[in-house]
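Tutorial, part two.
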Amino acid sequence: MTVGGLDVLFAPRERGKGTMPTATTYGYHFRKALKEAGITKPDGSPKYSPHGLRHFFASTALAHGIPLHEVSRWLGHRSIKTTVDVYGHLVPASWDRCRAIMHNALRPGAPAPPAGAFRVLGDPVDPA
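Running the prediction step on this input gives:
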C-alpha cells in the first residue's frame, strides 16, 4: 500500500489524524498478541516491543552488510547521521574490507579501474 508516496505495511487509520502510525499506535494489540502467544518474560510482561524489533531489524541488516544509507531510509531517519550514531558500531568490518580493497588496488600488476570510474582531485578533466 502506498501512503504519501511511500510503500507502507500499516496505513493511517481513517478516523485518525491522517499521520503515519508509530509503534505506540498498535502497542496495545502487539502486547496482547504476545501475551496470548505466551511470548513473555518470567514476570508475565511481553518479551518484545515494536521498538525492540526495530532495533533487531536494523542491527541484523547492518551486521550482514546491508548499506547504511538503505537501512537509514527504511527506518525513516531524517539524516543518515542518526543511523550512524545509533548503529555505526555494527559495521566495523567495513574498514577491514576497505583496507583489503585498497591494498589489492595498489599492488603491482593490479587491474586498472574501469574508465571514468574516478579521477584524482586536481587532475585535469579529460575533454574527450
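The mean pLDDT is 78. In part three we will examine how such features are distributed along the chain.
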